[in-house]
Write a structure and sequence with these properties.
- The protein is of the alpha+beta class.
- The protein folds into two domains: about 230 residues, Rossmann fold (3-Layer(aba) Sandwich); about 110 residues, Beta Barrel (OB fold (Dihydrolipoamide Acetyltransferase, E2P)), CATH 2.40.50.
- About 25% of the residues lie in helices and about 35% in strands.
- The chain contains eight helices and 20 strands.
- Strands 6-7-8-3-9-10 form a six-stranded mixed sheet, with helices on both faces. The protein has a five-stranded antiparallel sheet with strand order 13-12-11-14-20. Strands 15-19-16-17-18 form a five-stranded antiparallel sheet, with no helix packed on it.
- The longest helix has 18 residues.
- GO terms for molecular function: ABC-type polyamine transporter activity; ATP binding; ATP hydrolysis activity.
- It is an enzyme of class 7 (translocase).
- This is Spermidine/putrescine import ATP-binding protein PotA.
Length: about 375
């Protein structure tokens, strides 16, 4: 029988990093990243994602725990013995060297034959669509081209793992979207395991096979992008990923089914799967595109506070009669009359759109 650990590229076991004075950048983190996976570490500034990446790379030593690379313990191995390529937001190219010389640098340090260096540099530049740019210097390139050079320099050594720390953060929005697609395509073509650090939720959802959402040095949830978005495990994940309406109350089971008893006497019908939670105080999350305005006035009553046109949709901020804020995103409809700020509305929320969320990190990551 095949050992499933054969599929694990990077394994973190009880990893912690403390800088003293009671500051824990990373706390008791467990994580397995699969071979050939595009895996993102996502979270706000200061959540520990870059520190985690630097420990994987060997630039930081963990205070506790173990780091495995393909089953080999590399916890204390120096960076140059970890078989990893690195790409950062600041591409750190040598300004006085040509594109060819920048890409060839790592190979020269490994003392490869000149003919092999030339062949591998040419192949790497072709993969990032920079053939013909060999003689240029970084200052003669655009921001996107410089990032491609940094990628070529990382992949030319044929690493087992590619580590990327916000590599597209300095690019404008349109170029960033184009580079996201190119990076994902390159990762698939190479079959390399890629670990990507970002604070951009849309970027992580677009590119990743799986995402670890981090907060306060801990992992809140690990799952595929659609699960992270549609079934957030915790209040933090629901609130951090996109927009969400968060409502709290007691779960009540009665003759008419299960509902959430909100303040002000409001009642929110819940899915039957939440019946075992009856008697408990719970918080639920609802994505704004799953909420609509009721045509017959049945639903949670409130009024519109603001309406923001987003091009393909309009995001309505509504205030329920009990004071809670709810978000409604409706597709743009040309010529159709829509309510505006100050108008009374009733919100219709299908039970299957309601997801119970925990107040703190989930006990187990989703293996999907």
């Amino acid at each position: 029988m095949r050992d499933m650990t054969d599929d694990i590229a990077i394994s973190l076991k009880a990893i912690s990093k403390s800088y003293g004075g009671g500051v824990d950048a990373v706390s008791n983190l467990d994580l397995d990243i699969r071979e050939g996976e595009f895996f993102s570490l996502l979270g706000p500034s200061g959540c520990g994602k870059t520190t985690t990446l630097r420990m994987i790379a060997g630039f930081e030593e963990p205070t506790a725990g173990r780091i495995g690379l393909g089953g080999r313990d590399v916890t204390w191995a120096p960076p140059h013995k970890r078989d990893m390529g690195l790409v950062f937001q600041n591409d750190a190219l040598f300004p006085h060297r040509t594109v060819h010389q920048n890409v060839a640098f790592g190979l020269r340090m490994r003392r490869l034959p000149a003919a092999e260096i030339a062949a591998r540099v040419a192949a790497a530049l072709a993969q990032v669509q920079l053939t013909g740019f060999e003689a240029r210097h970084p200052g003669q390139l655009s921001g996107g081209q410089q990032q491609r050079v940094a990628l070529a320099r990382a992949i030319v050594i044929r690493p087992r793992v590619l580590l990327c720390d916000e590599p597209l953060g300095a690019l404008d929005r349109k170029l960033r979207a184009s580079m996201q697609f190119e990076l994902k395509e390159l990762q698939r073509e190479l079959g390399v395991t890629l670990i990507y650090v970002t604070h951009d939720q849309e970027e992580a959802l677009t590119m990743s096979d799986r995402i670890a959402v981090m907060n306060g040095g801990r992992i809140e949830q690990v799952a595929a992008p659609d699960t992270i978005y549609n079934r957030p495990a915790t209040r933090f994940v629901a609130d951090f990923i996109g927009e969400a309406t968060l409502l709290s109350g007691a779960v009540v089971r009665g003759a008419e089914g299960v509902h959430l008893a909100l303040s002000g006497g409001l009642r929110l019908p819940l899915p039957g799967s939440m019946a075992p939670m009856a008697g408990a105080e719970r918080t639920v999350a609802i994505r704004p595109e799953r909420i609509t305005f009721s045509g017959d006035g049945a639903g949670l009553p409130g009024h519109i506070v603001d309406a923001n046109f987003l091009g393909t949709a309009t995001l309505y901020k509504t205030r329920l009669d009990n004071g809670a804020l709810a978000l409604v995103r409706l597709p743009a409809a040309s010529g159709e009359a829509r309510p505006g700020p100050g108008d009374r509305v009733a919100l219709s929320i299908p039970p299957d759109a309601i997801v119970p969320v925990a107040s703190g990190p989930a006990a187990d990551g989703d293996p999907a």
